[in-house]
Amino acid sequence: MRSPSYISLVNVLVLAGCAGSRGRQGGTVDPQALCHLAGGCAEGWTGLGPIRRDALPECLGVPVHEESRRYGLAYLVSEVFRPKSGWGEVRVGWYRNGGNVELVEVTPTQPPEAAGFLAALGQPERVEPYSDYDLEVAGLVAPPGRRVEEAIFAARGLSLVVERDAGGAAQLRRLRAFAPMPVDRYVDDYVHIEPEPIE
Questions:
Q1: For 97, how many CA atoms within 13 A lie in the half-sphere containing its CB?
Q2: Is-contact 172 44, C-beta < 8 A?
Q3: What is the pLDDT of residues 72-114, one digit of tens each?
Q4: Contact 198, 69 (CB under 8 A)
């Protein structure tokens, strides 16, 4: 287990090296921007533009796990990647009906302090608390005395899932990238969801 001071230093270095991360440009997305995101660079992210599964950048490597879930008539494939950068695990959600990527989640290997990320991004449009059911669906656990919430920047297609202790100190548990959309739609479609496993 690495020390908090080491993790804080890594957090500073990650934020200092994020100048190139832009995401959506002119209605499309530069696949290389996903490499920056996979390395913990969220500050310059401007949203997930249209990108097909077969256009994902090589920096993500090959998937190490895959599962599928049904949402209405559509099937969402979820693939897990472990990039060589080592900053975190990347989960890419894409619809089998069409092959378009809908959601990219980056889960840090060593959760850094969230304060630097939140300061760099500014005021979120909404902070949405997670219920026990939301935690279960997301595959997260809140230790005793802590709560999990999502700071949502829906207009720029980004959210930060953070874990807070009783004093308010926060750790970053997950980065989520998606196409820019109204915050209410994001909360309904991506936070409080009830997926149906394929039988």
A1: 8
A2: no
A3: 777 889 999 999 889 999 999 998 888 899 999 999 999 999 9
A4: yes
DSSP output for 102-127: EEEEEEESSPPBSHHHHHHH-S-SEE
Q: In 17-74, which residue ranges form alpha helices assigned H by DSSP?
A: 31-38
CA distance 64 to 149: 28
Indicate the pTM of the whole model: 0.83
pLDDT tens digit string along 130-177? 999 999 988 899 889 999 999 999 999 999 999 999 998 999 999 999
| Residue at token pair 């693939």 | 79
Token couple for 168: 């308010």
CB 158 within 8 A of CB 176: yes
